[in-house]
């Protein structure tokens, strides 16, 4: 596993203390991608590569401790909050694809459809975030239609497909 998602964001799991940049706080994992393997020893294995066999017992214990703490944080967060965060992430994904020139409509459509599946499929179960998620879904659908219409107009093919 190269990272673990928590309500506070994505956390990269690193094998060694000396790989951390000076900006990382003790006991936290960096959100930045770690540079490739080792700086000179050759053969050092990164967690991002999925190979943990080359880690020493102390590094494995530290990593297990970090993962346990992240799991505790995740367990302490209501599932409705975690699901809502994923839905907001799908909104952002759709917006990113729509903002490309030219827009990546097929990619955006998939993200909008996935967001709709969560928001509409879990209606009444998303807690305080539900109203804003419904609004966000309506906004991203409208943006999709508007952008598709303008791109279709530029291409001369006339129609837009709604997600």
What is the strand tally?
A: 2
Helix/strand-derived class? mainly alpha
Cα-to-Cα separation, first versus last residue: 32 Å
Strand content: under 5%
Polypeptide structure, described:
It contains four helices and two strands; from the N terminus they run ββαααα. With 163 residues, it is mostly helical. Strands 1-2 form a two-stranded antiparallel ribbon. Helix 2 (79-98) packs antiparallel against helix 3, helix 2 runs parallel beside helix 4 and helix 3 (105-121) runs antiparallel to helix 4. 17% of the residues are buried.
Keywords:
two-stranded antiparallel sheet, mainly alpha, flat, 163 residues, 2 strands, 5% strand, 4 helices
How is this structure best summarized?
The protein is mainly alpha-helical and 163 residues long. The protein is 50% helix and 5% strand.
Ordered list of secondary-structure elements with their pairings:
Blueprint: E1 3-6, E2 9-12, H1 57-75, H2 79-98, H3 105-121, H4 130-155
Antiparallel strand pairs: 1-2
Helix pairs in contact: 2-3, 2-4, 3-4
């Amino acid at each position: 596993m190269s990272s673990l998602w928590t309500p506070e964001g994505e956390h990269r799991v690193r094998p060694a203390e000396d790989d951390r940049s000076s900006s990382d706080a003790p006991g936290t994992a960096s959100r930045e991608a770690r540079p490739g393997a080792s700086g000179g020893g050759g053969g050092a294995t990164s967690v991002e590569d999925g190979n943990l066999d080359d880690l020493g017992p102390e590094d494995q214990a530290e990593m297990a401790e970090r993962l346990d703490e992240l799991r505790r944080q995740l367990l302490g967060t209501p599932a409705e909050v975690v699901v809502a965060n994923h839905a907001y992430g799908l909104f952002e994904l759709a917006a990113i694809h729509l903002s490309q020139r030219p827009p990546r409509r097929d990619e955006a459509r998939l993200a909008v459809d996935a967001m709709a599946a969560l928001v509409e499929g879990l209606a009444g179960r998303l807690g305080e975030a539900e109203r804003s998620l419904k609004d966000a879904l309506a906004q991203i659908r409208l943006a999709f239609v508007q952008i598709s219409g303008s791109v279709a107009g530029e291409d001369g093919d006339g129609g837009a497909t709604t997600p």
